[in-house]
Amino acid sequence: MDATEAARREAERLHRANVAAGGDPTRPLAFALREATGRGLDVYALQEGDSQLKGGRATFDSQAGSILYDDRGSDFERAFLIGHELGHVVLEGGTLDVVTVDVEPDRSMEDAPVGVDRVLDYGARERREVKMDLFAREFLLPRRVLRELHVDEGLASDAIAKRFGAPLAVVQQQLLDALLLPPVEEPYPVGTGAVAGPLTPDPTQAQAAAHRGLAFQLQAGPGTGKTRTLVRRIEGLLAEGADPTTILVLTFSNKAANELCERIAASNPVAAAAMWIGTFHAFGLDIVRRFHDRLALPPDPQLVDRTEAIELLEDEFPRLDLKHYRNLWDPALDLSDMLSAISRAKDEVVDAAGYRALAQSMAVRAGTDQDATVRAQKCLEVATLFEAYERLLTARQLLDFGDLVALPVRLVEGSAEVRDALRARHEHVLVDEYQDVNRASVRLLKAIVGDGRNLWVVGDARQSIYRFRGASATNIARFAIDFPGAQASQLGINYRSDKRIVDVFTEFARGMQASVGALPLNLQADRGATGERVELRVAGSADDEISALAASIAALHEHGIAYGGQAVLCASNARLNAIAAGLEARGIPALHLGSLFERPEVKDLLALLSLVNDPRAAAMVRVATMARHQMPLQDVMRVIEHLRAANPASMAWSAMHAEVDGLVDGSREALARLSTLFAGVSTSTNPWSLLTGWTIDGLGLAKTLYQTGDARSRMQGLAIWQFLNFCRGQPRGQGVPVLRLLDRIRRLVLLSEDRGLSQLPRSAENIDAVRLMTIHGSKGLEFDVVHLPGMVTSGLPRNNVPPRCLPPDGLIHGSEGLTGIEAVKAGHDEEEECLFFVALSRARDRLLLYAYARQADGRARSPSKFVAPIDQLLVRPVPVPLQAALTSTGAPLAITWQGRPQWTDIQVNLFERCPRRFLYTHVLRLGGRRTETAFMKMHNVVGDVFEWLKREHETTSPTVIQLAARFEEAWRSKGATEHGYAEDYRRIGKRLVDFLIESRSRGAAAPAPPISLGWAEGEILVSPDGVAHGAGGRVTVRRVKTGKQRSNAFDDIEYTVLQLAAVQAYGPHAQVEVTYLTSETIQPMEISSRKLESRREKLQAFLQAMQAGQFPAKPEARSCPRCPSFFLCGDLPGGAWVQEKL
Question: What is the CB neighbour count within 10 angstroms for residue 921?
């Protein structure tokens, strides 16, 4: 149980005692006053702005024993202020004066780990105030009491709010905590933090904590008690009389900062609140705020995350005239890749000018080397975007995450006055996880500590696993260079693991690149060798590996090792998702959120939410599968088709369904319930309020999950809690709130910026389920048993896939003599070794490795090269019986076709990409909504002009005047005419049309009638974009694409269909040719007869699948979030479907 939960439980205890003594919690002000006066405290209500409030909302005077509060708002708001100050008295002993600037009664217990909140966290004082807010809320509205009122007495959240005189949002947040998070009465240490070691420190710990003077580096291997040693050093400084305000403790993660703060606060809460504990980014922001005037920034500058930075740059992108990174359809991914390169530069404190200088040097050195020239050109394009980005940030006084360290470095290095101020304030500097700091962080430290006196760092070079953020194990090796005269020592006893496990990761460490420059790893295992040897289990296939894994977990569970004591670690989230599904299919509870927005219970809520703004209610096709709103598919489609014909306004569907004929009674009742759910909802409704009201009251979902109470329901509750927590705080912006939220979710998934949401809330450790996590996520944790699957080639180590935007040569510190791509590869290889080392060292009692011998195509799969160095220490047990899954494949749609269906080649191409999207789009014709960007509008204009050309000038060329007139007409009706950079988009669109005209001038244009390809299962109608006759009677069949060519584009079934049609209509020598307008290229299609025949068979299989109603989803990271049906994709309503002839 963490300190915050302990505080809430103490508050509940006070509530119960107050009630037992006659207090009435439905009169909150009197209830709070009773508690305060019963403790001998004087309480005074003061007018707003009274000088005794010292600029805050409430104060506690420890000498006078009095609470003063701002006499504004409701009785509950006043009571909350008193409760907040009571928290300081009860939890901190009432020995410290307090000024509370503000309170937040409905705050969440933790911020969503996405966007700005993922990087920044509260400082020690802010964490303290968060705890007091939660204490006050628990004192006035205990979760247990609210849960009983809602579950046992059936009171809705608004009735509870009315009873206690509390704001509805406060009651609802408390109910979410009470119903969706696991009860605190069931703690299970799923993954505990770093081992504490013995209460009495061993000699190496004591010696390290006692160091004083010059810079000191403690190299602490896994399980050696580094955090306890760091805390002991802080306690020693305090005991020697050090002022806690002069102590600066820097960590790499918010989680580590919180845990460290709680450890210190357990024995000295006043000192913990006074010292500065936080991440490098949070410390950098603190410097920026203190010296904002020197940086020409406001006192509290606004931070932008990756999605906001992309929105900022999208308008600028078309004006930059890029070539290699040109994207005129949806540049979000290109911009994200380029921003990653810019962020990496900021890790090295390189600005746009420095980036350009490095890129220009590359161009000069490239000479006649074409590949080197292209790399230099790409770096120069990134420099161009970097310059534009800097201009935009400066003009709008914004910062991004990279600025939070790079900007303070430049400020501190360039100003003696600022350096002196920081040195005077921070006399003692301690750094945790030093191997994970980047070069910018090292330079910031050097500027602050000068010669390094009283700098104390702890880390382990072999656990440096954040290379992609600029971290490097070389910082451990360079410590004595960065801080001359520095001393180094190491901890020598591992308190975590069985000796057999220690022997394995120690042996692997001998050959690691990260061991170069580090002290030799010689650990004594405190526990000795009492357990089993480390195992390697080899299965037949990847699926068999999951079966073997499940069998091992089940066998260990039968021998008394709880599910919650076992962890499965993987290098990638993709493999974790497959393993989670495999374990759950075998009845093994798995603690794994995965992709939050793809979870069925979350997608149900998103589908409901999308009905707010979709006049045609397409999402009803998913909503109709939910328990309270079930309808057969035929009735759902009757409603949707009625709305499609009526074309109503948003939310009109809630009344119009009564007009639909032919619905069964059950469907009318389901629609009536659905309409009731949306009563009073408008497009301006706050999404969090709407979703929370549905979860608690409208759907009764929270109550149902709480009462079910099994591990699966607990995971669903956690997922919904995490989702609602995300919805609480959305960036400010224009437009309809629901649309902004849905669009942001699409963007987060597209950019993989939603990964932080897979982190489990702290209370998840109360669930007894197998913990599934990435190796990165396991850092700092330990488990009874660790299972490590994927020990095969390209599993671990993973293949080295360099970033799309490689760093310029010389950017990365310590890579002298290497090109950018060589530096990236070297860093990758080192990091993969470190990942394996981290994974090996998480287990206390048992460590099991898994591999498989065959790939999906039957070929042999080699074991990981990481096995060989430790092979002699591994045992290969007799294979345990595989545990089969309870398989359930999705049933096909019971579809009846009226006549032989007819499709276009474009439609069949969509079936290849995703049969489920094909079903939604072309069979059910649901349509869908995507927010049109200025780029998309520009393409719509080009498409409009192209259709006019095919219709009016199939075999002729329009005059310049005719073409210009048509373009202007299309631009006025479909273009981004209101956009701030409308003229730039117009210019680019005109250039695309000009190239289209140029491409049509090759050969003699001929009519291009549709071509029909027939099979028994259906007909495919192919409409070429043009046909031209060339020399020797050769016929060219043309396809025009407004984008640019993909390397594997001709593998798409669309081109196979086009080739078959061309040969059928114009003979075996007909040539298919594709024009790409964005890249201004024309590419002839080449395909062997063997491959053509293979694809013909594939095409027929597609038609057979359509006939049989087989429309499975094919998830794809880049396509799914762009799909109009993203929020409704899933199971279909039951019942048969009759498809009219298409």
Answer: 19
Using an 8 Å Cβ cutoff, are 1114 and 890 in contact? no
Residue (of 1138, 1136, 1130) closest to 623 by Cα position: 1130
Q: List residues bridging with 1084 in a β-sheet.
A: 1073
DSSP-assigned letters across all residues of 765-803? GGS-SEEEEEHHHHTT-BEEEEEE---BTBTTTBP----
Q: Are 7 and 58 in contact (CB under 8 A)?
A: no
CB-CB contact of 28 with 52 (8 Å): no
Which stretch of DSSP H or E encloses residue 1006?
Answer: strand 1004-1006
Which residues are within 8 A (CB) of 889 and not within 5 positions of it... i.e. 6 or more apart? none
If phi > 0 it is left, if psi is from -120 to 50 it is alpha, else beta; for residue 13 that is alpha
Provide CB contacts within 8 A for 1046, sequence distance 6+. Answer: none
Closest CA to 837 of 872, 795, 788: 788
Residue whose entry in the numeric block shows the structure tokens 């291997």: 221
Q: And the tokens for 395?
A: 């003009």
Give the total residue count for the chain.
Answer: 1142
Determine the residue type at 432.
D
CB 330 within 8 A of CB 937: no
CA distances from 172 to 108, 407, 628, 650, 726 (A): 11, 41, 22, 27, 15
pLDDT at 1139: 80
Residue listed under structure tokens 């960007």: 933
Taking the C-alpha atoms of residue 315 and residue 328, their distance in angstroms, rounded to an integer, is: 11
Identify the residue whose tokens are 């072999």. Answer: 462
Q: What is the 3-state secondary structure (H, E, C) of 935-981?
A: HHHHHHHHHHHHHHHHHHCCCCCCCHHHHHHHHHHHHHHHCCCCCCC
Burial class of residue 427 (count of CB atoms within 10 Å of its CB; 0-12, 13-18, 19+): middle
Largest CA distance in the chain: 106
**pLDDT tens readout for residues 715-768:** 999 999 999 999 988 777 777 899 999 999 999 999 988 888 888 888 887 788
Helix (H, G, I), strand (E, B), or coil: what is residue 925? coil
Helix (H) or strand (E) holding 457: strand 455-459
Are the C-beta atoms of residues 313 and 385 closer than 8 Å to each other? yes
Helices (H), 141-252: 143-147, 157-164, 168-180, 203-209, 226-239
Q: Exposed/middle/buried for 86, CB within 10 Å: 0-12, 13-18, 19+? A: buried
Report residues of the chain scoring pLDDT below 70.
Answer: 1, 112-113, 115-125, 184-199, 468, 879-890, 928-931, 1141-1142
Indicate the Cα dihedral angle 183, 185, 186, 187, nearest 10°: 100
DSSP 573-631: HHHHHHHHHHHHHTT--EE---SGGGSHHHHHHHHHHHTTT-TT-TTHHHHTTSGGG--
CA atoms of 227 and 255, how far apart (whole Å): 13
Predicted pLDDT of residue 110: 82
520: helix, strand or coil: coil
Say which residues have a Cβ less than 8 Å from residue 295's Cβ, sequence separation at least 6.
Answer: 288, 407, 411
Tokens standing for 606?
């998103």
pLDDT 10s digits, 225-249: 999 999 999 999 999 999 999 999 9
Specify the pLDDT at position 880.
60
Structure-derived torsion over alpha carbons of residues 345, 348, 351, 357, reported in degrees to the nearest 10: -80
The answer to whether the CB of 550 falls within 8 A of the CB of 586 is yes
- Distance (Å, rounded) from C-alpha 123 to C-alpha 249? 11
Contact between residue 313 and residue 320 where contact means Cβ atoms under 8 Å apart? no
Beta 1026-1029 vs 1035-1041: how paired, if at all?
Answer: antiparallel
Helix (H, G, I), strand (E, B) or coil at 70: strand
Listed residue (488, 492, 468) closest to 479, CA to CA: 488
- Residue 111 is classified by DSSP as -
User: Could you tell me the end-to-end alpha-carbon distance of the chain, in angstroms, rounded to an integer?
Assistant: 61
- Other CB atoms within a 10 A radius of the CB of residue 2 amount to 14
